[in-house]
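Figure 6 in text form: structure in, sequence out.
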């Protein structure tokens, strides 16, 4: 390695898109009975993957091998699991288990030595049950859960490397990420498209796509407009109340 490789490229940032989260499926009664812990209701997989999904696959993300810049992913599970700290040193960076409850999973990403970057820590709430309109999990009967299909909970993120060393920059540029599709190509799982109504699942697998950026921008803009409108309504209400208060004070003063 030459000395120039250990020089930081100042003023440059480069990023790699990832997703992290989990998928969960309900176990049949036969599968539950065969487990050493028959109270377990779901089989789930928590993972860190590239954002783009493989073509012609039901997997969410994972089109690219991330081991060219990730050395290890550590998943800290609930303490009730045997060996709750799971170190995964090669792809796929994921852990599959069975269980009955939802809990917070701590995810630590350790980068290769060439990156000279600190460990990155993420938090993910393990999701076993479908989302509802209220944002609370709803536990459907077993036959409904089996019919509704897998439950997905994934978060998109971008790992940004600022002022990278030249040798690490060379490594990153030699492995460009698979571009996200420009638009949605796969049907959304029914229970995600229709929160709180999952009795007739249409199947489908979530997929991250470039159009989600504009969709999120539209949602944020709508939320901003609603906040502005609500702020204006409250402001007018306050002005009206203050006017009524001044009128009451004046009447009291005149009466005195």
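Output sequence:
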């Amino acid at each position: 390695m030459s000395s120039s490789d250990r020089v930081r490229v100042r003023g440059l940032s480069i990023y790699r898109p990832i997703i992290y989260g989990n998928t969960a499926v309900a176990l049949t009664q036969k599968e539950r009975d065969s487990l050493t812990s028959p109270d377990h209701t779901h089989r789930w997989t928590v993972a860190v993957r590239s954002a783009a999904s493989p073509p012609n696959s039901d997997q969410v993300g994972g089109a690219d091998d991330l081991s060219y810049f990730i050395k290890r992913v550590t998943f800290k599970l609930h303490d009730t699991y045997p060996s709750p700290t799971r170190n995964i040193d090669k792809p796929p960076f994921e852990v599959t288990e069975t269980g009955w409850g939802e809990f917070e999973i701590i995810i630590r990403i350790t980068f290769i030595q060439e990156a000279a970057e600190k460990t990155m820590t993420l938090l993910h709430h393990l999701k076993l049950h479908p989302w509802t309109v209220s944002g609370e999990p709803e536990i459907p009967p077993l036959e409904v859960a089996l019919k509704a299909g897998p439950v997905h909970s994934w978060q998109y993120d971008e790992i940004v490397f600022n002022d990278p060393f030249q040798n690490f920059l060379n490594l990153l540029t030699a492995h460009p990420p698979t571009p996200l599709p420009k638009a949605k190509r796969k049907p959304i799982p029914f229970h995600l498209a229709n929160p709180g109504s999952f009795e007739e699942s249409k199947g489908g697998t979530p997929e991250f796509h470039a159009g989600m950026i504009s969709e999120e921008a539209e949602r944020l803009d709508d939320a901003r407009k609603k906040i502005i409108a609500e702020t204006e309504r409250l402001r007018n209400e306050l002005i009206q109340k203050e006017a009524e208060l001044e009128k009451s004070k004046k009447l009291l003063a005149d009466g005195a």
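Caption detail: Helices lie at 29-34, 142-148, 166-173, 190-193, 211-255.
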